[in-house]
Every structure is written in C-alpha cells, then in structure tokens.
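We modelled the chain as a single entity of 356 amino acids. Its sequence is:
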Amino acid sequence: MEKRALIIGATGIVGGNLAQHLVARGDWNVTGLSRGRTATDSGVDSVTADLTSADSVTRALHGRQFTHVFFTAWSRQATERENIEVNGAMVRHVLDALGPSGALQHAALVTGLKHYLGPFEAYAQGSVPLTPFREEQGRQPVDNFYYEQEDRLFEAARRYGFNWSVHRPHTIIGFALGNAMNMGTTLAVYATLCKETGQPFVFPGSEAQWNGLTDMTDARLLARHLEWASASPNARNEDFNVVNGDVFRWKWMWTQVAQYFGIEPAPFDGRMRPLENRMHEAGKQWSGIAERHRLKEPAIERLASWWHTDADLGRPMEVLTDMSKSRKAGFLDYQSTSDAFFALFDKLRHERIIPS
C-alpha cells in the first residue's frame, strides 16, 4: 500500500527536515499542512488550514486519505492553560478529520524534554527527575500542553484504531527560517554579529550549562527516527527520547563554534548575560550586514530566537537524555553534535543566510 504522509508543520525545523527525508526516500507521497506563510519544499504537496479551527481543518482535509500523520508544530500562547487548550485542540481537529476514513495507520507526535522539566512558566520547578531522563520517569505534577497533546493522541488512537508514537528530542539543530525555537541559526547570527561589529562572543547562559554535560538532537536524525517508528513493530504505541548519541559541555562547544566563525570566545566569568537583554541594536546591525554581504534575509527576527536560546542555555541544572529505549528497540543511528552545527552553518552560508 502506498505510504501517504501528512506533516503538520511541514515548513518548520522538524517538519521541513522530515519532509525532505521522506521525499528523498522515494516511496512516500508527502503532503504538508501549515498556515501557508512559507512555501513547502519541492516534492511536497501543500494544504493550508487554521489548525485551531475544526471547520478549517475538516474542509482542508475533506476527501484526502493519509496512512501516516506527523505532528511537528505547536502554537505558543501567553499561558500554559492557553497552550493546553489550543495545542490539544490542534491534535484533536486533525485526528478527528482523518480518523473516520479508516486509512490512518500511524500518528507520530513530536514534543520535547519539557515533558520532564515542566513548561516554560513552571520550568524546572519542583521535583525534576534524575538525569539522564528516561521515558519511565513519566509526567510531572504540573500543567503541560505536551500531556494534553498525548492524551488527545491516545484517545483518538483508541477510537479510530491506528498506532502511535511520541518523540521527545532535546534542543534541535537544523535548517529552517522563521522558526521560533532555533538555537543553531541563532548562534550563527550571534557569532556573525560579533565578528562584524567586534563585540565579544560571550556565552549567555548559566554556570550549570557551561560546566555540565548536555546533548542535542539533529533534525535529520529526528526525521529518521520518526520514519523508523512509523514502521517498526518495536516502536508501536511507545514514547521515545531522541538525541544524537553524544554528550558535550558548552565550555568546549562554545570554542568549537567560535573557531568555525574565526572569532575568539570571551572568557566565562560565571554570570548569565541573556541575549535578549543585549540584542536591542541587533536588528539594525543585521540589516546592514545583510546589505553589505547581499544576504537573502535582512530581517533578524526571521532567523534568531533570543528568548529560546536564553531559556535553553540558562537552565540551572544538567539536562541529559537516555536513548536506551530506542537502542533496544532497534534504532541505532548516531550524529556528532559538533558536526551537526557545522553542517548547519555550512548550509546557512551556501544559502546566503549568513556571510561566507
């Protein structure tokens, strides 16, 4: 039977890389559902809908049948209660539109490590599980829209008879423009600003992140993990952490990033210096850099997410993930995190997003 994939959020950092991966495989028919603000890649059919509206989703998907659906998007709201209401409804609307046809075989949901850490407004409060995080540690006793999305997924799977998987990456490295959570591109923009303006390349985060062990997730590896789980009997109706497979300390990685851009890393004195507090002139500076180097994107807000990078690098504790469950189930892929950063930086240069 032909594999027909619907990717919710096909122009984002996760969905875009997944779409490219499935198209390249050659045996998938791929459709992307989004708000229509960014064009999908070649080989991907495009459907536009407002995911927060059941009527809009139903109209957009009417008469279409898919064997697989991948949820790779979310809508950021002012409070966690609003996140729960809006993002849970988005999952419900799609599955209620697709489920009755009987064609849907598998639904995959991408969430993240806030499953263990708690949401932004209750971030790392209370009893955070012992690292490395393991799937059996379960949920935190706080409101979290990830849990609502999972519950809507589980409920629909029981009602309509399809299989599911849940994927929990750490901070994702990958190519995407206009993405709200994109540390790799944010650091590339920050390093470029430092190089062009002479300001010091200062680590913005906490001493715990500077000295502690951590890991990350390459969007290309996550794409392979999503496809693997859609077909493997060992992954059926299971939740998985998904990271690259190596660990590092930022005190080492910061130097690697600096060396790539040909700049000196500033010494770290233990004080946090969040990017969002220091980038007030960055938009004007970037516009000038883009003009001088003839870059494609002069709007820095389409590239850098200062708040998200600050949140990740400012964590007051070690954040590390165990991949044993995936390994035992048969997913053995590995990705060097430094190579993931360098591959992204190379692509940003090739696409004229940052200077060569």
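As a brief sanity check on the tokenised model: The first strand starts at residue 3 and ends at 8. The radius of gyration is 20 Å.
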